[in-house]
Amino acid sequence: MRGLAGKLLRLDRRAIFVLIALATLIPLLYPVGLPIRVSPEVKRVYDHIESLPAGSVFLLSLDFDPASKPELYPMAVALLNHAFRRDLRVVTMTLWVTGTGMAEKVVSGVASEYGKRRGLDYAFLGYSPGGANVIINMGQDLNAAFPADHYGERTADLPVLGGVRSLRQVNYVVSLAAGTPGVESWYVYGKEKYGFELGGGVTAVIAPGLYPFLDTGQINGLIGGLRGAAEYEILIGMKGKGMAGMDAQSATHFIIIGLILLCNLFYVLAPGTVVRSFDPSAPLRTGSAQDGPGPSTGLRTGPSTPLRPRTEPDEVTGSPDEVTR
Amino acid sequence: MATSVFIGAWVAAGLTLFMFSFLYKDNPFFRFGEHLYVGVSMGYTIVRIHYDVMMKSLYGPVVQEGKWWLLVPALLGLLVLTRFVPKVSWLSRISFAVIVGFGSGVAIPRIISSNILQQVQGTLKPLLNAGSSRFGMAELNALLILTGVLTVLVYFFFSIEHKGAIKIAARIGIYFLMVYFGAAFGYTVMARMSLVIGRFDDLILFASRDYAYASLVLLILVTLGLLLWERGSTKLTTGGQRRSS
Amino acid sequence: MTLFLRRTLPLLLTFLFGVAFAAQYYIPHPVSEGALTEISVWLRIILGFAMILGIASLCQVHYAKIRTRVAGWGYSLVVYLSMLITVAVGFWAGGQETGTGLGWIYTYTLLALQGTMFSILGFFVASAAFRAFRARSKEATVLLVAAILMMFGRVPLGEYLVPAAGPVAGWLLNVLSLAARRGIIIGISLGGIATSIKIIFGIERSYLGGRD
Q1: What does the DSSP assignment read for chain C?
Q2: pLDDT over threshold 60, residue A323
Q3: Do C83 and B36 touch (CB under 8 A)?
C-alpha cells in the first residue's frame, strides 16, 4: 500500500492535465445548471445601479487584458446590459493598453443591441498611460485627461459628457480589474479625494484582498471572479458566459479537492511521515530523514528524503522551461 | 459568415492549440506561439502609444489647440529615451526624478488616508458602536477582526524579539495568515480554472460545423506535428549517440 | 557643474516635486489644484515615452539574437516580423479596430495567445496541488482546510451538497481572511510611506540607476 502511495505521488503530471481537461470539457458540453446563490457583495453593486435615476453618469473602467477575459468580460457584458437598460449615461475607458480592443468591442457590441448611439448615449474614451496618474487627471479635469475619445472626437463636444467636468460629477464608477492599476488605484487616487461612489469587479486572484475595503465602505460592492459574473447575470435575468462556466468550475474544483485529499492520504501512508509545528525561532535545517522546516508548501519531492543534488527536472515546479508567473 | 471571421477562427484555434501543446512538453509550436505573442503585443502597444498618447495627448493639444507648453513634457519624455545612449544616459535621471518625485508625493497622503486611517477606523468602529447591546455574532466578528489585525501586525514587527507574550501573539497571527493564504489559494484555483474554461469554450465554438470543425482538424494536425517532431528529435539524439561511441 | 546636473539636480527635483505634491493634498487653493492638473497631464505624456523604453529594450534583445545567430534566432525573427506587420496594419487602419485588420489581429491572435498562455497555469495549479499541497505542520493544515473550504463553498455543487458551505466560506472571507489582509495592508502601506519619504529625501536613490 505504501509502495503504491509512493508511486502515485510520482504520477506523470500529464495524467492530471488530462483529468482537468475532461473535467472542464464534459460540463461545458453537457451542462447541468445547478442553482447559484447570490452573495451580498454582488447584490450591492446591482442595487446601487438600480437606485440610479435615468441619465446618471456611470463610468466603467475596463482595467484588464486578454489574459483575464474569461472572468471579467462576462462581468462587463452584464454591467453594460444593466446600465443601458436603466438608460444611464455610460462612459467607458481602460487603463491597460492591451485591453483597449476588448473594451471597445464589448461596449459597442452591447450598446448596439440597445440601439444606443455613440457620443449621445455612451462614450468610449480609450486608453491612457499612467494608471493612478490618469485617475488623478480625470479627477481634476476629465477633458484634460482625455482631450479626445478613442475615435478622435473631442470629449468637450460629446453630448453624453455634458456637465461632466471631472470625476466629481460621475455618479458611479465600477472598475473591472485584473491587478494594478485597478480597483485599489481608483479608491486611493480617485474616490479618496473626488468622492464618487465606487464598486469593483475583479479576478478571483485579487478578490480576497479587497474585502477589507468592502468592509469599510471604500468600495460599495464587489463582483469576484467568474462566480461573481454568474451571480450578476442571475440578478439581471441574463444567461451569459458566467453561468455557462459554473458547472465546469464545480467539476474542476472537486477534482482538485480530491487530488489534494489523495495527496495527503498518500503522504500519510508513505514511510517516515512526521507532522510537527512550525517554530520561527528554530534554526533552519538543511535536510534529514525527517521533514524539512516550515509550514511547507512542498518544494521537495518526497516527504522524508534528504535534500540531494538534482539530476532531473523538479517534479514539483516542472521543467526549467515551465511557464510560471 | 464573413471569410475574415472563418479564417480568424482557424487561426485562433490553431494558436490556442499551439500554446496548449506546452502541456505535453516544450516544443517548436509553443515557442512559435510564444514569440508571436511577444511580437504582436509589442506592435499593438506601439500603435496604441502613437494614437492614444502622441496624437491625442500631444499633437492634438499642441498643434490644434495651441498648448505649446506641452512641449516641455515631450522634451522630458525624449530625455527618458537617452537611457539607451551610455554617454548621455544621465539626462534620463531628470525625467525619472520628476516621475518618481510626483508619484511618491501624491501617494503619501492618499495612502495614509485610505489604507491606514480608514482601515484602522473600520477595525475599531464596530467595537465602539457595540455599546450595551447583547454580545452577538456581529460583536464576535468585530473582536476576531481586531485580534487578527493586531496579531498579524505583531507577527510582522521584527524590530523586537518574538518571545513571551509577543511570541504568543505572533503565533496567533500566523494562523490568521494561514487562513488568508488558504482563502487566496482557493480563489486562485477558481481564477485559473476560469481561464481554462474560457479557452475551452472558444475551442468548442470553433469545433462546430459553422467553422468546419476547425478545432478538431487542427488538434489532429498539431498532434501529428508533435509526433513527427518527437520522432525527429529522438532520431537526432540516437544518431548523435551512435556517432560518439 | 557636471556633478550638479548628474546627481544634485535629479535629487533636488525629486525633493521639490515630492514635497510639493504631498502638501498639495492639503491645500485646496485653485493655484494648487491647477498645478496638480497640469503636472498630471505632463506625467501622462512623459509616461507614454517611457513605455517606448520597454519595447526598445525587447527589440534590442531580439536583434542581438538575430545578429549573432544564437540557437533559436529564428524565433526572434518571428518577433520582429509579427511586430512590424502589426504596426503596419495598425497604421493602415488609423489605429481603429472595428472591422479593420488591426481588429482582426487583436481578436484572432493576441486574444487567443495571451488568453491561452495564462490558462496553462490552471493545469499546473492542479498538478502542483496534487504533488505539493501537504499538511506537514499545524499551520499548513490550517491553510489546507481554509483552501478546501473556499474551493468547496464557492461553487454551486458544493453549496448544493452542503448548503452551509457557502455561508461558511463567506464568513472566512469576511472575518478571518479580512483580518489578516487588513494587517498586511496596513503593514505594506507603512512600508510604502517610509520608502516614499526615503525617496523624497534622497536616502533611496536606486531609481536614478548607475553610479554617481
Answers
A1: -HHIIIIIHHHHHHHHHHHHHHHHTT---HHHHHHHHHHHHHHHHHHHHHHHHHHHHHHHHHHHHHHHT-TTHHHHHHHHHHHHHHHHHHHHTTT--TTSHHHHHIIIIIHHHHHHHHHHHHHHHHHHHHHH----BHHHHHHHHHHHHHHHHTSHHHHHH-TTHHHHHHHIIIIIIHHHHHHHHHHHHHHHHHHHHHHHTTS--GGG-S--
A2: no
A3: no
